[in-house]
Amino acid sequence: MTARLLCAFLISLLACLPLLSQVSAAPISGVVLDPRRDPLPRATVRLLDASGAERARALTDSLGRFRFNQPCDASCTLTVEMIGFRSVTQNVSPGAEAELVLSLAPVYEQVVVSATRTETPTAQLGANTSVVGREEVENRQALPAADLFRPLPSATVIRTGGLGAVTTLFVRGGESDHNKVLLDGIPLNEPGGFFDFSNLTVENLDRLEVVRGPQSALFGSDAMASVVQLFTARGRSETRRPRFSLSAEGGNNRTWRARAGLSGELDWFDYALGWGRLSTDNREPNSAFHDTSLSANLGAALGERTSLRAIFRGELGRAGTPGQTAFGRPDSDSSFRRRDAFAALSLRNQTSSFWEQSLRYTFAASRQVSRNLFEDPPFVPEFGDSVAPFAFFDFPFDFLNLARRHQVSYQSDFRAGAAGRRFGLHFITIAFEWDREDGSFGDRLFGGVPVEAGRDNLGWVVQHQAILGRLTLTNGVRVENNDSFGTAIVPRSSAAYLVRPGGETFGATKLKFNFGLGIKEPSLSESFSTGPFVVGNPELAPERVRSFDAGIEQRFWRDRAKLEVNWFDNRFRDLIAFQVISFVPFTGSFFNVESSKAKGTEVVLELAPGWGLRGMGNYTWLDSQVTRSANPFSPVFQEGRPLFRRPRHSGSLRVFWDWRRLNVTSTAVFVGRRVDSDFSALEPPLVESRSYVKWDLGWTYRSSYRVSYFGVVENLLNRDTMEALGFPALKLTFRAGARVDF
Question: Which of 206, 229, 252 is the last residue of a domain?
Answer without folding.
Answer: 229
